[in-house]
Each structure stands twice: as structure tokens, then as C-alpha cells.
Amino acid sequence: MTASTVVNIPNYTIGSDAITTMPRIARKYGDRVLIIGGKTALERSEDKIEQALRASGETEFHFNWYGGECTYENMENLVKEVERRKSNLILGVGGGKAIDTAKGAAEKADLPVITIPTIASTCAAATALSIVYTEKGDFADLYYLDHTPVHIFIDTTIIAESPWRYQWAGIGDAMAKFYETRATTRNKELSHSALLGKQISSLCAAPMLKYGVKAVQDNKDGVDSHDLRQVILNGIISTGLVSILIGEENNGAAAHSLFYGMTVLPEIEQHHLHGEVVAYGILFLLMLDEDREEIRRLSPFYKEMGWPTCLKDLNLSRKDISEAVVEKALGNPDMGKMPYEVTREKLLKAVDELEAFMA
Questions:
Q1: Are the C-beta atoms of residues 259 and 21 closer than 8 Å to each other?
Q2: 2: pLDDT confidence band, cut at 50, 70 and 90?
């Protein structure tokens, strides 16, 4: 007899007034709320959140900056704040790093967490995973959590008015979920939940190709449109569900591993977004797979989006792919999930062949 399997899937609310419905749901989990977020995210959402929580009349709440980087130290500092405030519910607000820090603090404090993404650049708002970095911003660890957020409030007005580059990059991060899942599950007998995750992963790419360009333009214009909502849902919910269902052993692959390797480069950390570099990583993965036809199919979309297709587009040269980058990329657990061994020679060959192919 096999052991029981527990699958946690978060509920979500989406709409221009999503946050106004929060008190009815939040009060089921706690009435002393620690709200953790990025400085800009809290500035943009604080009034809505405060108005919603005050409407309940029974909730005590406090706002806290997450610390500026998703580190274990910042999580522990927030746990101390939880203890000081006697909080019984955490609300994570902002982008991926802020929400991942809030989720990690909630895990350590054994509290439920509700998320409010203010940008749609990652699936962090939905997943039971925190990507941990060093204080310098280098990738450090993948912190797997026991529980997903209990609810996600996706305020489309706030996201439509957010800086468009986060949405632009987030589409690349979402599309990687399809290509990486396709690689990691190859020739495997999958469980029901993993098979479900694999099927959902197709929604992480095809709708982006259909709605992505218009959604980014609508984001630039501050328009809460149908196209933008489709991209938001696929970027947060579809990718989040895949991450939850596909299993740790199938979640992530070469596209993300190359990104984590590149985090040792100051140019990447200071001037490029996660999803932007992961979009380049998709092409790198496809070249590892020798799938030049798919690279050719994606190229017009990459051009329309203005995504990087070569190292020059990331303000890098071939010499920047140093031993430190290679070592960190190959040492990342996600690289080991590829259906074949990726060696130093294979990695560098794929980078070189991609450069030549996109020239």
C-alpha cells in the first residue's frame, strides 16, 4: 500500500475589486494580521488593504517591509515580528521576492498566508516554494513549503497600473513552465497529479503567444483588459498549479538553472529581470534539446516582445559565461531534472550554438 498524497491548491479571487472581498475570507484564518510586502507594493495597495480590513471592524493589522531580499535572515526577522505582534495570519503583498519572504516567514511561524500580487511576473503568489537568495542577490536555495497560500487576491486594477516590464518579463517566466515540464516529464510514468500538472502546463505557453503582445501594451496604457487578465491568470494561476501538481522532481529545468547561474553576474542582478533572463533560458533549453524548429517558431514572438535571443541582448559576451556561471548553473538542482546529463561541455556548446543560430 502506498502512502497518502496531499495536494494543496489555493483558492483565488480576481477582479478590479478583488481586495474588497478579503475580510470575509481572511477572518476565517485570523484576526491579527501581519502584512508583509515591498515598499512600492505597499504604497500602491495600502489604502485598498486598509480600507478592506477596517470594514470588518474586528481585525488588528500591521504593515511591515519584507527586508529587500528573500533571505532566511529576513524570514526569521519577520517571525520575531509575528511573535511580538501575536499575529495569527500573514498577508504577503508585492512581487516574487516579497511574497516568497512572506510565505517563508509563515512557514516558519506555522501560520496561514494570503497573497496579494501587485505585479504578475511570477507564480510566487500561488506556490508552496520560496526562492531564497543571499543578501547580495545571488541564488542560494529552494525552500519547499508544506502549504500553499490559503487564498490569492488578484487586483487587476493594481496590476494594470504596475510597471509594464514586470508583466513583459513574467510572460517569459510563465512560458518556461511549459518547456521545462515537457523536458522533465519526458518518458516518465506520471502520477495523476503530475499528469494533471503536465496538461495544465500547455496553458503556460499557448495563451501567452496569443495574448502576450497586446497584454503588455495594455499594461503600458494602464488598461485592465481581457488580454491582460488572460496573461495574469496564466502567469499566476496556471503556472502556480503546475508547480504544485507536477511534483518537486519535475518542477524547473535548464532555463531556470541558467538564470540562477547568471545571478553571479552583476549585469544580470542589477539590470535584468528574472523572467527576461528565463526567456533567454527557454531558447538555451531548446538548443540543448536540439529543437531548432521550435526556436524558429518562437523567434517572431520573441522579436515582437523584444526579448533577448543572444548574449548581446543581455549586455553580455561569451567570456561572461565564466566558470562561476557554469558551476552555479550545473550545481542548481533544476539542471539535474533534465532527461539527460547536462555537462559543462554540453552547456557551453548550447550557448555557442544558440549564438550562431540567432546571429
A1: no
A2: low
Q: For residue 12, report the phi and psi dihedrals to the nearest 5 degrees.
A: -150, 155
Contact 163, 32 (CB under 8 A): no
Could you give the residue range(s) of every CATH 3.40.50.1970 domain in the chain?
Answer: 11-160
Measured CA to CA, the distance from residue 228 to residue 349 in angstroms comes to: 37
Burial of 336 by CB count in 10 Å (0-12 exposed, 13-18 middle, 19+ buried)?
middle
> What architecture (CATH level 2) is domain 164-358?
Up-down Bundle (1.20)
For 76, counting Cβ atoms within 10 Å of its Cβ (0-12 exposed, 13-18 middle, 19+ buried), the class is middle
Q: How far is CA 238 from CA 176, 177, 198, in A?
A: 12, 9, 11
Instruction: Return contacts of 294-298, CB within 8 angstroms, 24+ apart.
Output: 295/354, 295/357, 295/358
| DSSP reduced 3-state for 136 | coil
Q: Quick one: average pLDDT of 314-337?
A: 96
Q: How far apart are the first and last CA of the chain?
A: 55
pLDDT in tens, 36-64: 999 999 999 999 999 999 887 777 999 99
Query: Looking at residue 99, what is its pLDDT?
Result: 97
Question: Grid coordinates standing for 232?
Answer: 495574469
SS3 117: strand
Write down the pLDDT at residue 76. Answer: 98
Question: Which pLDDT value is given to residue 219?
Answer: 97
Q: Please name which of 158, 186, 311 lies closest in space to residue 253, comparing C-alpha atoms.
A: 186
Q: Cell digits for 88? A: 495569527
Average pLDDT over residues 238-242: 95
Q: What is the pLDDT of residue 6?
A: 81
What pLDDT score does 142 carry? 86
Run of H or E including 168? helix 164-184
pLDDT class of 232 with cuts at 50, 70, 90 = very high
Q: How confident is the model at residue 1 (pLDDT cuts 50, 70, 90)?
A: very low
Q: What is 11-160's CATH number, 3.30.70.1290, 3.20.20.480, 3.40.50.1970, 3.40.50.720?
A: 3.40.50.1970
DSSP E strand stretches across 6-45: 11-15, 32-37
